[in-house]
C-alpha cells in the first residue's frame, strides 16, 4: 500500500530514540493525547510555533528534489493572508505572502530546493501560516493523485482559531492521510459540522 509506505518514510526520529520512531517507547498514559504527542513526535521535525487567536500553522514535508502543490480552500470574513515560510532561530520567518479569495481554492507550487531542515530520511520542511477570521478551512484536496506526485505532505496542524476544519474524506488518499498531530491552543477549536473533520486520516495519532 503506497500510503502506508509513504507514511512510514515520513516518520522521523522520536523523542528519546536514536533511530526511527518505531523504536521502543517509554511506559505512560497513551490515552492522553498530550503524552502521545510528547513521546512520539519525531525530533527532527521543525518545532511548531504557538498560534495567536487568529492563526493556524501547518507543517508540511516534501521529498528532496521534487516540486509539489499546496492546496487549501478557505472561507473567511474580512481580510486573510496565507504565508509560506520557515523557522529561523525558533521564529517563523515569512518567505512569501499571498491574499486568497474567500470561497475559492488557494494553490501554490512548492519547490523543495527552496527549503532546508531536511529530516534524516530526506524530506524538506516548511510551514504555512494562515491569518484571519477563517470560518471554514478545507485541506482535503480531493485529488487522489496528490500522494504519488511529490505534493507536500501535511503532517501537523497547530490551530489558535475556532473554525470549520476539514481534513478528511471517505477515501484516505483524497484527504490528509499523513496528518499525525492536531493541537488547538487558546480559543482554538472546531465549529460547524465535524463529520468530515478527520475521516480517513489514517495516520492521526493525537488531537488535543
Give the structure's gist in a few sentences.
The protein has 208 residues and is mainly beta.
The number of helical elements comes to 2
Helicity range of the residues?
Answer: under 10%
Number of strands: 10
Distance between the termini: 29 Å
Order of helices and strands: HHEEEEEEEEEE
Rg estimate, integer Å = 16 Å
* Structural class by helix and strand composition: mainly beta
Q: Stretches where pLDDT falls below 50 for ≥5 residues?
A: 14-22, 143-150
- Overall 3D form: globular
Average pLDDT works out at 81
User: For the report, how would you describe the main beta sheet?
Assistant: 10 strands, mixed
For this entry, give a set of tags.
single chain; 208 residues; mainly beta; 10-stranded mixed beta sheet; 10 strands
Structure description:
With 208 residues, the protein is mainly beta. The chain has helices at residues 2-10, 33-40; strands at 55-63, 67-88, 91-98, 104-111, 123-138, 153-159, 162-166, 181-184, 189-190, 206-207. Strands 1, 2, 3, 4, 5, 6, 7, 8, 9 and 10 form a ten-stranded mixed β-sheet that branches. A hairpin with a 2-residue loop joins strand 2 (67-88) and strand 3 (91-98). It is globular and about 45 Å long. 38% of the residues are buried. The model is unreliable at 14-22 and 143-150 (pLDDT under 50).
